[in-house]
Amino acid sequence: MPKMMVKNMSFKVGQTLTVTGKPKPDATNFALNIGPDEQDITLHINPRFNAHGDENTVVCNSCQGGSWGQEVREGGFPFKQGEEFQFTITFNPEEFLVTLSDGSTISFPNRMGAEKYAFISFDGEVRITSFEIK
Hints:
The protein has strands at residues 4-6, 11-12, 16-23, 30-35, 41-51, 54-64, 67-68, 85-91, 95-99, 105-109, 116-117, 119-124, 126-133. By secondary structure, it is an all-beta fold.
């Protein structure tokens, strides 16, 4: 069960989502999910300190109809346990461009092709202090 969920929001093409938070000091990983609803996730961002066989890696994916797609692993790893982070997600028709706090970027395709998503959730070992859509 996600720790924080927002339904009926409007994250549209052309907008940018800025997320600020702080992983727990002993966090293994956390995730942000964006999609049309709780079941289908068009963008899953999963910073992993030490989880699922990965260390200090950001894994992005999508899930449709209960099936996960091809993982994307690119960009840096500016996250530190117990320290505040901030990243942005710019939503274009073809892709999501994630800019991490170290300036590295992750380009993830908009696999579902929608121009607006209504659901966002955060889970794992993190405290989200703010998120803003502009």
